[in-house]
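Design a sequence for this backbone.
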């Protein structure tokens, strides 16, 4: 499902769970909302049926040096911040995923 920032995201080999987690942390930061693990998982509910399993994303993003912190609060590293902005711009919630399915189906429809 390529989008406007796919080159940035793809070049860093992020999986969907990592992208969603970075986007959610970016959203929390923009809204000055809590950034603990429980709060971010609650934000993840915005992805509805498109929510990926984030269980491995916490440690992989920390291991890649993109986020730091613990269950009480996460924050971006200097390396992670620009990627998180790209993730949030492209996939802030479930709408991006819906559009990836809706538009091709609509244009392929005989009703169109």
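Sequence:
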């Amino acid at each position: 499902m390529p989008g406007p920032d796919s080159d940035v995201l793809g070049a860093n080999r992020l999986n969907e769970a990592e992208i969603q987690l970075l986007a959610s942390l970016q959203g929390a930061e923009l809204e000055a909302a809590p950034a603990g693990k429980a709060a971010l998982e609650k934000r993840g509910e915005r992805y509805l049926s498109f929510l990926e399993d984030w269980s491995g994303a916490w440690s992989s993003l920390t291991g890649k040096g993109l986020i730091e912190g613990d269950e009480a609060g996460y924050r971006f590293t200097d390396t992670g911040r620009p990627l998180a902005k790209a993730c949030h711009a492209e996939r802030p919630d479930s709408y991006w995923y819906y559009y990836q399915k809706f538009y091709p189906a609509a244009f392929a429809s005989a009703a169109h």
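Strands lie at 67-70, 73-76.
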